[in-house]
Every structure is written in C-alpha cells, then in structure tokens.
Amino acid sequence: MLLGLRTIVYTASNLPEAVAWYRAVLGEEPYFNEPFYAGFNVGGYELGLIPDGPTGTGGQVAYWGVPDAEAAFARLLALGATPHEAVHDVGGGILLGTVLDPFANVLGIIQNPYFQLPS
C-alpha cells in the first residue's frame, strides 16, 4: 500500500521567492512549478512548496507515496486513524490527504502523477 517516503511539503507566504531560494540552495530547477505547488526532486525524494498553510514549526508534513490516495485514505481510517485533512486535489492532479494515527501523529499521503523515482 505505501510506496515509500516521498515528499516533505513546506509552506511559504511568497511562493516565487521560496522557489528561487530553494533553486539556489539545491542548484537545480523544480520539476513542477505552478502558482499552487512547486516540486523539486532531491535525491529521489520530493521537496514540495505550497503558498498557503501554517509556516514555521508545525508547518511541515511528510507524505508517503501511494498509487491511489482515496483508497489509501479509506484503508488508514479503517485501521483506526482519524481524518485530519480529506484527500483533495492541490492542482494538476496531485492528490494529498492527512490522517492522525492512533498516537496523534499527522501522517500524509500523496498521489503525484508527475513525480518519478530516478532510474
């Protein structure tokens, strides 16, 4: 069901500035760059940037790659998780959702048709 740890998402009040900063830090261009989301492939993992949400401590969520976000979300709920943020399209067909595990940890899932592991 889980494909592996894939993505960490950081929020930034000014997405273009954040993209420019991470472009300089990483020395590469984002593989996906739209006003609603920017994604960098960093050694087989994704650094995602979004323009809204909490910033600073508590503003990050690690996302596990899944082939079907709706099915994964339902399975996690069936196993005792509680909904935190319903699966939703953040743009371009990228689906995100979060649950709280039975120990109150936020667990994120991501279905991202653009992200490819290096071969």
UniProtKB/TrEMBL annotation:
Gene3D superfamilies: 2,3-Dihydroxybiphenyl 1,2-Dioxygenase, domain 1 (3.10.180.10). Pfam families: Glyoxalase. PROSITE patterns: VOC. Transmembrane segments: none annotated. InterPro entries: Glyas_Bleomycin-R_OHBP_Dase, Glyas_Fos-R_dOase_dom, VOC_core. Residues 4-112 form the VOC domain. It comes from the Bacteria. This is VOC family protein. It comes from Hymenobacter lutimineralis.
